Amino acid sequence: xxxxxxxxxxxxxxxxxxxxxxxxxxxxxxxxxxxxxxxxxxxxxxxxxxxxxxxxxxxxxxxxxxxxxxxxxxxxxxxxxxxxxxxxxxxxxxxxxxxxxxxxxxxxxxxxxxxxxxxxxxxxxxxxxxxxxxxxxxxxxxxxxxxxxxxxxxxxxxxxxxxxxxxxxxxxxxxxxxxxxxxxxxxxxxxxxxxxxxxxxxxxxxxxxxxxxxxxxxxxxxxxxxxxxxxxxxxxxxxxxxxxxxxxxxxxxxxxxxxxxxxxxxxxxxxxxxxxxxxxxxxxxxxxxxxxxxxxxxxxxxxxxxxxxxxxxxxxxxxxxxxxxxxxxxxxxxxxxxxxxxxxxxxxxxxxxxxxxxxxxxxxxxxxxxxxxxxxxxxxxxxxxxxxxxxxxxxxxxxxxxxxxxxxxxxxxxxxxxxxxxxxxxxxxxxxxxxxxxxxxxxxxxxxxxxxxxxxxxxxxxxxxxxxxxxxxxxxxxxxxxxxxxxxxxxxxxxxxxxxxxxxxxxxxxxxxxxxxxxxxxxxxxxxxxxxxxxxxxxxxxxxxxxxxxxxxxxxxxxxxxxxxxxxxxxxxxxxxxxxxxxxxxxxxxxxxxxxxxxxxxxxxxxxxxxxxxxxxxxxxxxxxxxxxxxxxxxxxxxxxxxxxxxxxxxxxxxxxxxxxxxxxxxxxxxxxxxxxxxxxxxxxxxxxxxxxxxxxxxxxxxxxxxxxxxxxxxxxxxxxxxxxxxxxxxxxxxxxxxxxxxxxxxxxxxxxxxxxxxxxxxxxxxxxxxxxxxxxxxxxxxxxxxxxxxxxxxxxxxxxxxxxxxxxxx
Length: 811
Ligand SMILES: *[C@@H]1O[C@H](CO)[C@@H](O)[C@H](O)[C@H]1NC(C)=O
Ligand SMILES: *[C@@H]1O[C@H](CO)[C@@H](O)[C@H](O)[C@H]1NC(C)=O
Ligand SMILES: *[C@@H]1O[C@H](CO)[C@@H](O)[C@H](O)[C@H]1NC(C)=O
Ligand SMILES: *[C@@H]1O[C@H](CO)[C@@H](O)[C@H](O)[C@H]1NC(C)=O
Ligand SMILES: *[C@@H]1O[C@H](CO)[C@@H](O)[C@H](O)[C@H]1NC(C)=O
Ligand SMILES: *[C@@H]1O[C@H](CO)[C@@H](O)[C@H](O)[C@H]1NC(C)=O
Ligand SMILES: *[C@@H]1O[C@H](CO)[C@@H](O)[C@H](O)[C@H]1NC(C)=O
Ligand SMILES: *[C@@H]1O[C@H](CO)[C@@H](O)[C@H](O)[C@H]1NC(C)=O
Ligand SMILES: *[C@@H]1O[C@H](CO)[C@@H](O)[C@H](O)[C@H]1NC(C)=O
Ligand SMILES: *[C@@H]1O[C@H](CO)[C@@H](O)[C@H](O)[C@H]1NC(C)=O
Ligand SMILES: *[C@@H]1O[C@H](CO)[C@@H](O)[C@H](O)[C@H]1NC(C)=O
Ligand SMILES: *[C@@H]1O[C@H](CO)[C@@H](O)[C@H](O)[C@H]1NC(C)=O
Ligand SMILES: [Ca+2]
Prior knowledge:
CATH architecture of the largest domain: 3-Layer(aba) Sandwich
Helix content: 10-25%
Protein name: Sushi domain containing 2
Oligomer: single chain
Shape: globular
Number of strands: 38
Bound molecules: 2-acetamido-2-deoxy-beta-D-glucopyranose, calcium ion
GO cellular component, one term: membrane
CATH superfamily of the largest domain: Mog1/PsbP, alpha/beta/alpha sandwich
Organism: Synaphobranchus kaupii (Kaup's arrowtooth eel)
Domain Sushi: 712-769
Subcellular location: Membrane
């Protein structure tokens, strides 16, 4: 209550707006409350009307989740409806306790979708938001499962038949009797035009009046056209009482999948021929669709790079080394990543796969190679039009065709012609800036310093790129409760252009981070990945948070031993664009420390005070602050206090005293590179634990820097015609050797080595036939063949012309 009083009294618009925003769950400027003292009372008393809390707050993009409206009761005669995105109206109901429920609808987009609630079907006076999630990022408990996915995938191909089985968690459908329906997905209209739209259709019912036992088995029959033309879809389990094919009813959906099991009889008779025909027509289509390949980002050269460049690449859930994933579509690979951002014009995606030695796997060498995607699997804003529909579009343009060409028939070369792996010759690793411990800073250019100011500062300010990262420091508490003369990082807040503001802060629970979006705490209980406005956030455990922006900037936050460590990863496009505590990024460590208003401070440890002045100059203001001040402590210490506390004078140096009881353990623990930071932090905080976490953070940063080191790639080498090559690594020092088939002689280099300048040693390798006569005769026959072919073409052409003329005359 005291806080509300403070708000009333001070009536500062920023804090006021933040309060409203928190309550309304909207962006500051979109908040329906107005920033005046008079309306404050209104906002606070009836904000529940504006911002419904719901449970659960997220579900599949396919819809069908029943969610409860919390903190509001309805009477039984209410006719409840929910309206999503101002257009999709779904029925709700009031349960026995007077609590309202709605069912989430099918949405062709992911992220937060606003909805309004009406108790009379006319006035929509309550507002909330629903998080729509990509099926691949949804927890498996929230969907129906295809048991033995391989059997479903290949059903109807030679030797794959039998009974198909699926299961679901019965709590997903609150009904005794259920039915099982098949729904199909396709995209219609002219590609890359506004008529290109998604279509989602009820096809037929597989079973009805079944006990809701959580399990369904059936022996699928081949279907006839036109139903069998639906090759992609998903199975829905819903209450038997609902009419067939009714949209947006409570349901459990399976993952989208290729409907091998219901394709026409012809597929079962000869699946390879059927699939080849499909593969060829996809090949034709691809030839006329625009080429997106030069728009996608190049793959990292090594597995280490791919896993360290977390601002631009993220684990592909289908092939994840951490989960021991079987890489179904990428045999021979142990881990794949996807480019996080879709390409700007075409919404295309990039995927990069690596083998157990850490080398990239290329489609030109292996069926398990990395492949780019016409449609990014995760979709891309504005999402609702192909090829940007999350999940579905990717299936249509990149996955079904893989089934046709590679899985159901053996014609993968067609697929790889249009989806060749990117090599890594133009890949450039990002640069990393780092803040950790009692805060020490390692700039993007690798210089380091310690700054123990207390306040809120710009860590990165890159106005031309629209990126701001701010950090808050607070004094370290000693074990006996007094404050040390040192600070630690306790929160970071960031934004790029007009994105949602993301804040990550330490909480009272040790090593648990809290993430706020526009001043409101986010929950990661249902999924670890959130698609937000202009930013993605990933948090699989409470200690680790990754924030990813469209420019490719990434921020990694770690809670470790009571302190926060933070890495900012910036692509090279940020060169010359950054200022702030992490320095001016331009490959020159000597000019890193530019105060906000002045000349470069030379890095010189003996002048801790001038460093302190440098740090202080980067204090933010209340106007520029991205932070949330939602406790009296934060209000007093940071909002109504100088942003850089002039009264807080840290210890500029520490004294190592062999009589100190911590001394021996400390020297044992703090060794090697980074030991200075470890000792400093142990002594200022009088805590071995703090020193230890500093040491771990430093080593973790060193490992990331090593992983990001640039690697020279010479690019793929083709095997010679009539010969073979050995070796599929193309990085500096790699060695590729060539041999020729019998009756051919090798010319050029037998062995080529990738050199430091990115060029292969030696010369192009050829295999020359030993039988010169063979070549001469061969070419004679070839010429004869050519003449015959020309004659044949002329004849058929004539025939066709005649035929065309006949048809023309008839009409
Ligand atoms: C809303 O209801 C939930 C659960 O019933 C409760 O935990 C929460 O505190 C309530 N929120 C408000 C603002 O009353
Ligand atoms: C239910 O609500 C409506 C409108 O709010 C009201 O007119 C009606 O009297 C209420 N019925 C009961 C049983 O409370
Ligand atoms: C899955 O189905 C395939 C194809 O029918 C079969 O070969 C395999 O044994 C099945 N696996 C399991 C675990 O049942
Ligand atoms: C199917 O099974 C037969 C007999 O076991 C075998 O000869 C054939 O190779 C199998 N076909 C495929 C595609 O696995
Ligand atoms: C089914 O879902 C409920 C609620 O989400 C959960 O508590 C339960 O453990 C789940 N059961 C199974 C078998 O996964
Ligand atoms: C990609 O290629 C197309 C035509 O081939 C060209 O118009 C376009 O500028 C290229 N884009 C990039 C980013 O190189
Ligand atoms: C930090 O910078 C100092 C010079 O200011 C240098 O001697 C030291 O090696 C650097 N430490 C690390 C870990 O880079
Ligand atoms: C707390 O501990 C520090 C260092 O161990 C010491 O300097 C300080 O006097 C102590 N304060 C109290 C109140 O005991
Ligand atoms: C969290 O981050 C640390 C350090 O970067 C890493 O070692 C650890 O594996 C991460 N944990 C998870 C679950 O990703
Ligand atoms: C950064 O600025 C320096 C000096 O002004 C210039 O030489 C360099 O090319 C710039 N780098 C980029 C990437 O713009
Ligand atoms: C650091 O500053 C001190 C005092 O100004 C000066 O004597 C010393 O030479 C400087 N050291 C370096 C490496 O610039
Ligand atoms: C290249 O590989 C071949 C065969 O593995 C080996 O004999 C040769 O010594 C290698 N050359 C170099 C320079 O590593
Ligand atoms: Ca620099």
